[in-house]
Design a protein that fits this description.
The protein is of the alpha/beta class and about 375 residues long. It is built from 13 helices and eleven strands. The protein has two domains: about 250 residues, Aspartate Aminotransferase, domain 2 (3-Layer(aba) Sandwich), CATH 3.40.640.10; about 120 residues, Aspartate Aminotransferase, domain 1. Helix content is about 40%, strand content about 15%. The chain has a seven-stranded mixed beta sheet with strand order 1-9-8-5-4-2-3, with helices on both faces. It has a two-stranded antiparallel ribbon with strand order 6-7. The protein is globular and about 75 Å long. One of its GO terms (biological process) is polysaccharide biosynthetic process.
């Protein structure tokens, strides 16, 4: 049985259409297709503004850099993050000269241990960067209750959670900004690509600037005249209003995004149907497995978290032998990675360590079907 972690979501017709587009397009660098895709994404996501960039990691980088400027943060400012997340949720915090503060995760929705989150908040806490892990929406009510009246900004990494909802509101709409990834194996793909979504116009403008060198010409046209008059001694085409990056995407990626977004809801429906069947299978082994069921899930993958490490090793080895690809749950406890060793004692994070030592996941996408899931159930019945 061949079961890949990721499948190519681009169908033949999309590839043929892309080839024709490349042949006939006047330009392939960022242009009208990017704006069109941003508008379609905003409509789908239910937000006012979106900024398309070249990856989900770049989306995180722009988000954190813009947050630092928007709130005038300094190197004493703390950003709370979960111990189980992707590396480029942490790297931008460090690159922006901010301080990451790690919190253990819970085993119900794989977001923060909400009691520990409460203890980690200090007067220096300026932001909480949530990861909606593997498509499981975090409990936004608990997070907002922890924050209370404190002046702490909510940021959301939704790179694995397109369409996930908390109380019928899509994740990415609860804070200042949300980030999304359109990498090859995610809910939809632009091959490489990412998006920042927000409802704050001033923050949106700052993200536009950060995406492309800090150039004023990246702003909506209605703002151009103001800056032309304000800086008359500088050629407007080369007017830099802030520091920035070059993390623009292309017309090619946006063209694919416009095609893929038409099928996104259908893709999510299949993924969730698969996950529900997988969950039902796992409940047969609740004495050996930690099962996760969260309302509003938009499943990225099918995670196994075993209560004993030895059983994890046996099951993973057998699945690999049968052609089922596996990988760690994100990066496990990120604090066990060499580049973060100096920050915290990883042994404090009980649940993150359990996920690190006893967890892995297999692929879930629109090409996984009931036949394959039944085979998986049969394999597990024999091993467990």
């Amino acid at each position: 049985m061949k079961w890949k972690l990721q499948e190519n979501a681009l169908v033949k017709e999309e590839i043929e259409s892309l080839a024709e587009f490349i042949k006939t397009a006047d330009r392939l660098t960022q242009g009208s297709k990017v704006k069109e895709f941003e508008a379609e994404w905003s409509k789908w996501q239910g937000c006012k503004y979106s900024v398309f960039v070249n990856s989900g990691s770049s989306a995180n980088l722009v988000l954190l850099s813009a947050v630092k400027d928007y709130y005038n943060l300094d190197n004493t400012s703390e950003v709370i993050v979960p111990a189980v997340t992707w590396v480029t949720n942490i790297s931008p915090i460090l690159q922006c000269g901010l301080k990451p503060v790690f919190v253990d995760v819970n085993l119900e929705d794989l977001s923060f241990d909400y009691e520990e989150l409460k203890k980690k908040i200090t007067d220096k806490t300026k932001a909480i960067f949530i990861t909606h892990l593997l498509g499981f929406p975090a409990n936004m009510e608990k997070i907002k209750n922890v924050i209370g009246e404190k002046d702490i900004v909510i940021l959301e990494d939704c790179c694995e959670s397109h369409g996930a909802k908390y109380k019928n509101i899509k994740v990415g709409n609860f804070g200042l900004g949300g980030t999304f990834s359109f990498y090859w194996g995610h809910h939809m793909t632009t091959i490489e690509g990412g998006m920042i979504s927000t409802n704050n116009e001033e923050f949106y403008k700052l993200c536009l600037l950060k995406r492309s060198h800090g150039l004023a010409r990246e702003l909506p046209i209605k703002y151009h005249e103001y800056y032309k008059n304000k800086y008359k001694d500088i050629d407007f085409k080369f007017l830099f209003l802030t520091d920035g990056f070059n993390v623009r995407s292309t017309e090619i990626n946006a063209f694919l995004g416009l095609r893929q977004i038409k099928n996104l809801d259908a893709f999510i429906e299949i993924r969730d149907k698969n996950y529900n069947m997988f969950f039902d299978t796992c409940t047969k082994y609740e004495d050996k497995l930690i099962t996760i069921k969260v309302e509003g899930t938009s499943s990225l993958a099918l995670p196994f978290i075993f209560k004993e490490k030895r059983l994890r090793e046996i099951v993973e080895k057998k699945l690999n032998e049968l052609g089922v690809e596996t990988r760690p749950i994100i990066s496990g406890n990120l604090l066990r990675q060499p580049f973060l060793k100096k920050y915290h004692n990883e042994n404090e994070f009980k649940n993150a360590n359990l996920i690190h030592d006893n967890g892995f996941y297999i692929g879930n996408n629109q090409f996984v079907d009931e036949i394959r899931l039944k085979k998986l159930e049969s394999i597990l019945d024999k091993i467990m």
